[in-house]
């Protein structure tokens, strides 16, 4: 599988030149992942679901912030793999790698808050449960809830950070 370097470079450059914003990238990722999870629900194989569950367990049980963040990234990437479309995977990896860099501070803050971490952990568990059913609509609803919770929790955490730190 080719590396998504070109797509990553394009998004990084467009971001630096202010053609697009972080908000545009986040919104695109959310739209994209709502479709990905539906395809993953109907196309996955048992061993892929086992890996998704293992990553979810790692997210939920991780006591190390960086380990939890990496497991979260791999969880969403696993969903893209389960969608069974190489074009989707390449675009996802290119987009997500850029967001991984620019949203790092927000993610760290969210994982340091026990309440935020618990709420986002619950949404990962719900995504796994929905994908298991092979029901596209349930999977989409679980992903909707995940992003709604993520946005609520990270904006709450993010808004409590001194502005000098938030702008890094």
From TrEMBL:
InterPro entries xref list: GntR_C (IPR011711), TF_FadR/GntR_C (IPR008920)
Tagged with keyword Flavoprotein: no
GO molecular function: DNA binding
Pfam families in UniProt: FCD (PF07729)
Keyword vocabulary terms for this entry: DNA-binding, Transcription, Transcription regulation
Segments forming domain GntR C-terminal: 24-149
SUPFAM superfamilies reported in the protein's UniProt record: GntR ligand-binding domain-like (SSF48008)
Keyword DNA repair found: no
Protein name: FadR family transcriptional regulator
Species lineage: Bacteria, Pseudomonadati, Pseudomonadota, Gammaproteobacteria, Oceanospirillales
